[in-house]
Specification:
The chain contains 5 helices and no strands. The chain is an all-alpha fold. α1 crosses α2, α1 packs parallel to α5 and α2 packs antiparallel against α4.
Length: about 130
Amino acid sequence: MKATLGPALAACFSIAATMSAHASGVAAQGASAADPAARAVLDCHAQYAKKFALSSTAASASEIATGAEASCKPEMDAYARSAMHMSRSNADTMPFAKTHQAEMVRALKDYAFSYTVDAVIRARALP
């Protein structure tokens, strides 16, 4: 089962790696590839982090990341639908599409949280 997650997670992490290389800017021009729904989630988290990193200095990075999860729910819901479509479209994952989708969504949620914490820390560390 884990072998089938590889390509999907690799796509998410590829997008995230490209985006973190451009942490000071919200849009990552090189990340247009793999999964636009996953990119939309990370874009939303980046925008939220940028907006609140300096304006809410009393909030911790993890509190801002938690707020981003709530604020970016529509984007995550769109990714969940996309993940289900991908799971049902792949003959290897079709028999357990719901489980596969849940694992993909959990992996992106975990990464998006960490990505947001990192974006807040980087924004606050800049001179």
